[in-house]
């Protein structure tokens, strides 16, 4: 255990459990904000909510290898721990983060971990029914990795509440079902997506983009918002294909953008919807690949809006 100015940095599961035990003895509620680092204002909004709702707040920083496929950007994923700690120390006025959990891979995966799913050994968690569609089509191992690491974090910290952003809509559905079905005693709090001034959803992957590309990528949210406004203005049952036909041409108007998927899904099951009805609603979600600043490949951006 180390202390970075005002924040206690925990490196092992044992240290976290000792810290958590003291909270239990003091009858203090604990909020957990799980992250993969490269923190930005979106993360800070989750932390701020936890600070307001709990006696203690812990942030985890761990780039989880099991949610990356062998061909994906695990090695290139931004790692900015020192900057992250500085941000957590100065970003909040009245209360501050109490602890940051920064484990090694060996601490989180005692049996070891490889990116090849067929070669992995040990215990993993899969949430069937909401992991296979949308993001799961092109990233079949992704939500198995997410569900596994979130299960580990909730087991280690046993938080009163855990905080996630609506930007990762499918992840939030997977985690809610995980907690419900494994009967975990943690409340899952999902907060609205925080956006840059141009509307682009805040994401650690935005670090791959030039400012010019960030501005161009803001068309993704504009497109989704167009579909949202179309549905809201009608105030009645609307065909999903009509919304898709409005949104898709806006995103694909940039010839360098690669649309991976555009879907209108049930807000709880993520099943594809033929119609969107008031009272049930839907999620319009998309994944778009855009050129990186380095010119080396493309960055994959996801976003969504809620239809009520």
Automatic annotation (TrEMBL):
PANTHER family recorded: CYTIDYLATE KINASE/PANTOATE-BETA-ALANINE LIGASE, PANTOATE--BETA-ALANINE LIGASE
Entry EC number(s): 6.3.2.1
GO biological process: pantothenate biosynthetic process
Catalysed reactions, as listed in the record: (R)-pantoate + beta-alanine + ATP = (R)-pantothenate + AMP + diphosphate + H(+)
Family from the record: Belongs to the pantothenate synthetase family.
Listed Pfam families: Pantoate_ligase (PF02569)
Pathway listed: Cofactor biosynthesis; (R)-pantothenate biosynthesis; (R)-pantothenate from (R)-pantoate and beta-alanine: step 1/1
Keywords: ATP-binding, Ligase, Nucleotide-binding, Pantothenate biosynthesis
InterPro entries: Cyt_trans-like (IPR004821), Pantoate_ligase (IPR003721)
UniProt GO molecular function: ATP binding; pantoate-beta-alanine ligase activity
Protein name: Pantoate--beta-alanine ligase
């Amino acid at each position: 255990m180390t202390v970075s100015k005002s924040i206690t940095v925990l490196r092992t599961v044992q240290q976290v459990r000792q810290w958590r035990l003291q909270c239990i003895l003091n009858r203090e509620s604990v909020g957990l904000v799980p992250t993969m680092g490269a923190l930005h204002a979106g993360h800070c909004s989750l932390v701020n909510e936890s600070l307001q709702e709990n006696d203690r707040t812990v942030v985890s920083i761990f780039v989880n290898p099991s949610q990356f496929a062998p061909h994906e950007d695990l090695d290139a994923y931004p790692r900015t721990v020192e900057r992250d700690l500085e941000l957590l120390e100065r970003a909040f006025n009245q209360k501050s983060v109490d602890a940051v959990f920064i484990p090694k891979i060996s601490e989180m995966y005692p049996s070891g971990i490889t990116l090849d799913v067929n070669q992995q050994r040990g215990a993993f968690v899969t949430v069937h029914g909401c992991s296979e569609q949308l993001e799961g089509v092109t990233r079949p191992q992704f939500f198995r990795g997410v569900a596994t690491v979130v299960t580990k974090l909730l087991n280690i910290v046993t938080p009163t509440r855990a905080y996630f952003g609506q930007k990762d809509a499918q992840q939030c559905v997977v985690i809610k079902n995980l907690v419900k079905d494994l009967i975990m005693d943690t409340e899952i709090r999902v907060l609205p997506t925080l956006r840059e001034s141009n509307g682009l959803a805040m994401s650690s992957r935005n670090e791959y983009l030039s400012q010019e590309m960030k501005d161009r990528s803001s068309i993704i949210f504009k497109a989704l918002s167009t579909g949202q406004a179309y549905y809201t203005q009608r105030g009645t049952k609307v065909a999903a294909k009509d919304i898709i036909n409005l949104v898709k041409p806006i995103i694909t108007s940039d010839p360098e953008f690669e649309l991976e998927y555009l879907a209108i899904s049930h807000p709880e099951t993520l099943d594809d919807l033929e119609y969107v009805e008031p009272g049930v609603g839907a999620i319009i979600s998309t994944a778009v690949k855009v050129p990186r600043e380095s010119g080396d490949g493309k960055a994959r951006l996801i976003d969504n809006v809620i239809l009520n």
